[in-house]
Amino acid sequence: MHRWISGLVCLGIGACGDSGDSLDLSVQRAHSLMSEGLFRESDGELLRALESHPEASAELSLRRTLLAARHGDIESVGLNARASNTSAGDLFAAEVLLVDLQTEEAKRLFHRAVEQGQGSVQITAEHYLQWLDSDDSSMAALAEVTALWALGDWATACDEAEEVVKGLRDEELRRSKSLLWASRAVAARRPDVAQGLLDDMGTPPLGQAWRFQAIQAMIWLADGRIDESRDRLDQLRVEHPVEVEDALVTACLTTEEPAIGEELIRGIDSIEADLCRVHHGVKDGEGAAIAAQLSCVTGWSGCAGGGDADLRLDWYQLYPRPTLSPFHEWPTVEPETPLPIPEQVQEAALVKQVEPVGTFIQAKGLLPETPEIDGPEAVRPEAVRPEGFTRPGADMQQETVWVPAEKKVEGLCHDLFALEARALLGKLSMDQNACLEMRLKTAPTMTEKGKVSRLEMVNAYTSDRAEWARLVKRHLEEFDSSDPDLSLKYALYLSQKGPSRATEVVFWAERALERRSVWSGDNYKSRVNTLYKLRAAAGQSMWKAASDEYAATHSNVVKERMENHRTNTKVWAREWLEYARATGRDTTTAARLCRSAAAHSEYCPAG
Fold first, then answer.
1. If you write DSSP's letter for every residue of 213-262 in order, what string do you get?
2. Who contacts 405 (Cβ-Cβ below 8 Å, separation ≥6)?
3. Could you give the CA distance from residue 249 to residue 278 in angstroms, rounded to a whole number?
């Protein structure tokens, strides 16, 4: 039976007196030593802490597991994971057994993780068991290489995965896994493997043609075909400006040429982009950028955050990061056509016109579990702590591996905190969703309604983007209209839905601008710039649509509407231009758009 710990009450601010302070300092020192690459010294610090604090054996053993994984010592990962006597430890130890071909023992630990674990740990173990018990023997082999990837041996995993994936019986599954492993292989600097998987794939999964093209461009970059790679990525900047940011930062992290890397991420303001600049020595700082990137489920940069994503659990609070699970499914809905870039701005010199939109547009397809970084269009619910569960100084919004077995989620929704883990993975059941809707209707306060609504949005983001958008609109209109982050994310979503939604893009962008004072620092600059850009692009799309209609009808009513849209575009583009100039951003696109809408070029000064 596992020895559960009912909360990390001795971490954070020393709530347990001198003993707690000592443990907290040891954990901090061990992390600092690990970050400097001093793995033996870091492990020594944790061992001394274990001698002084035997009651903290579980959490210290888990940290030794994370340290061993960072060091690449898979054998020690297994030993320390078992010593932790936790469900997360069972998961990690089972992965080690699986890559050592001890399948039956691995399955025993996976089963125990399912029975006694919760949330991400439980779901990941279930996924392994599903593959290992499949009638298709190639699925068991796929589970083995997936475990190898999860444990950090990325290059070997990609090398072995190529033949495994090509041997999958199910055609749709083969195409899906070919794309996933090609994505991982190009990031792990195995371009030959990536090319082989692309060649064998045929048609990419629904909605993923852009990713196929991005992988091909990164392969060309690795092969020295710089011009071809640049042209393909430039095209993707225009057609998929939000999604391609992940590819551009990943390409920057994989190239050995600092100048090429800087060109790839020019205009991108994100933590991942800054890690790439640190990696190439053009910016001061520390961070395990490559390791964090490769730990992301697709091998790309989206979850890298501050550089510790490869740990799979947060070092201090030990909640699962989004990198805990190595399993991934592509979205099954074909994205609608995004707002077109009008002809006035599509000249060759402006191929790179769409500046990616900033630090808060990150992990695609899975809401990040790190508290300091917002996800892309996803919305994290405010934490709802069970009665009596407090930890001064800690942000406990995330799932924890310490929740006792009796707290596991069943079919009800009385405990929102307990439902978070499954919601983050889009795994709430129909009964749980129905329960949340009923609770939303009967909740006595707007605060409670808001918490329930946010949990529903998180769940829908992973599984049904259209439903997510419906819930966001309802939340903004009925429960909380004062959230600028949510207004911005909704405007970004609408901007990908074509010119018919441009009016709504303007509305929600302006709603977010009205409340921009809640932001500060680089977040303020990046998000405000994005809002100005979204509004100007939406105005231009409406102007172009009206212009096309007028050319066909010569209606005076349409002509008046066309001129109104042109005037709005001119004003909004100038505001974007002035803000971009004031904050040191590239003004090329804003200036060109402004001049295309203005009657006189003096209205849009270049300097």
1. HHHHHHHHHHTT-HHHHHHHHHHHHHH-TTTHHHHHHHHHHH-S-HHHHH
2. 4, 116, 118
3. 12
Coil, strand or helix: which one is 125?
helix
Are the C-beta atoms of residues 149 and 183 closer than 8 Å to each other? no
Please state, in angstroms and rounded to a whole number, the distance separating the CA atoms of residues 375 and 6.
29
Mean pLDDT across 422-438 = 82
Euclidean distance between CA atoms 505 and 517, whole angstroms: 20
100 — phi, psi (to 5°)? Answer: -85, 5
| Digit-coded pLDDT (tens) for 214-253 | 999 999 988 888 888 888 888 888 777 767 787 888 888 8
- List residues bridging with 13 in a β-sheet: none
Q: How many CA atoms lie within 13 A of 534 on its CB side?
A: 36
In order, the DSSP letters of 325-342 are --------SPPPPPPP--
| DSSP code per residue over 522-589 | HHHHHHHHHHHHHHHHHHHHHHHHHHHHHHHH--HHHHHHHHHHHHHHHHHHHHHHHHHHHTT---HH
* DSSP of 28-41: HHHHHHHHTT-HHH
In this structure, are residues 254 and 187 in contact, taking their beta carbons and an 8 Å threshold?
yes
DSSP state at residue 475: I
Closest of 191, 181, 185, 194 to residue 155, by C-alpha = 185
Parse the chain into domains and list their residue ranges: 443-603
Predicted confidence band of residue 526 (pLDDT cuts 50, 70, 90): confident
Fold that domain 443-603 belongs to in CATH: 1.25.40
pLDDT at 17 over 80: no
Burial 343-362 (b: 16+ CB within 10 A, else e): ebbeeeebebbbbbbbbbbb
Alpha carbon separation from 433 to 120, 407, 438, 562 (Å, rounded) = 19, 19, 9, 45
Among 245, 237, 198, 202, residue whose Cα is nearest residue 219: 198
Q: Return the number of other C-beta atoms located less than 10 Å from residue 73's C-beta.
A: 16
431 sits in which H/E element: helix 430-442
Task: Indicate the SS3 state at residue 343.
Answer: helix
Rounded mean pLDDT, 116-137: 88
Comparing C-alpha atoms, which of 392, 396, 378, 241 is closest to residue 317? 396
- Chain-centre distance of CA 7, in angstroms? 27
* Contact between residue 469 and residue 457 where contact means Cβ atoms under 8 Å apart: no
Residues 91 and 114: beta-carbon distance below 8 Å: no
* Amino acid at site 220: W
pLDDT digits (tens, 9 = 90+) for 368-384: 232 332 333 333 333 33
The structure tokens listed for 454 are 């946010």
Q: Which residues, 6 or more positions from 373, have their beta carbon under 8 angstroms from its beta carbon?
A: 271, 305, 306, 359, 360, 362
334-354 pLDDT tens trace = 444 444 434 343 332 222 232
Q: Residue length, the chain? A: 607
pLDDT confidence of residue 332: 45
Start-to-end C-alpha separation, the chain: 70
- DSSP readout, 32-76? HHHHTT-HHHHHHHHHHHHHH-GGGHHHHHHHHHHHHHHHT-HHH
